[in-house]
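Next up, a chain.

===
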Amino acid sequence: MILKAYESSQQDAVLRLWENSGLNTLFPANGHLWKINVENNLAFKSEDFWGAWNQQGKLLGFVLTRRFRDITTPSIMEERYGKTGWISLLLVEESSRRQGIGTGLLEKAHAVLSDVKSIRLGGDFNHFFPGVPEGESLGFFSNKGYTFNQELINDLSLDLDNWELSEQPISIMGGDYFFTQGKAGEEESILDFIGLPSNGFSPRWRYDLERIFKKGYSPENVTLIKGQSGKIEGFLQTWELKEVIECALSRPTIFWAMHEKPMEKHGSIGPLGINSTIRGGGIGLALVAAGTAYLKKRGVTFVTIDWTALTTFYSKLGYHPWRSYRIGYKNL
């Protein structure tokens, strides 16, 4: 086995291995997503990827590591993520397993990330997966000292063909609040709302949205709830396949869904955030319904939600588990 760092000429071999890994049934290999998440990712360095090649020049497995490298961001991002490393992907082709290749690649990943305080499996910036997909790989990582949360996290889905907007809560029907899509020029107001410390949102939400605004993601795709004064009280991002592709955005559930259901028009929602002072009473659920209705109006027929533990919450609108994962980590 020969370990090699990444070169762009290896992309075809990587995608072929992905197709032969057993992962391809639920998570089809996709060159467009690979280019977005890896080759065109400004944080990616060739030594983040190590491939295991045999003497005949065949790729048998690879590992993709991540770390947070953006020094231009607010200090809270560096404080939160600067000492975390991620293993974004570790794949070995099915016919080459149980030969020590996966163990060797994992050891290489640990060496690459030797200066971090903890390693997380999935859930990285521009992630492919929010955690480890349910399956035999959980046992592999457990045997290597990784701990897994008991709670499942899920991607969710909803078929919109027969879906209808549910009745709105009293606070909406009474006119205290209203829904609207964001408008050009509102980018900073939306980002400021997400960044309010009192709301307790992940700083990653603001960071990610600011980046994709710069890539061309329109504020019209953000469903807002506002009070009568026009103050933003909540937000929900929506996504359509066309814009994800045109703006080179990373939204993996859309790519998985378009292969599973090629005849549908695909969209996605999330993240969702409500002002802490008005939570409860159905406001959040109503905002999800409004965003879902917006996508349906745009012609979307199949919607996914990427990475959530709030399965019961979203199920009230008909969303159901579609892909399942467990969060795994190792403290060093």
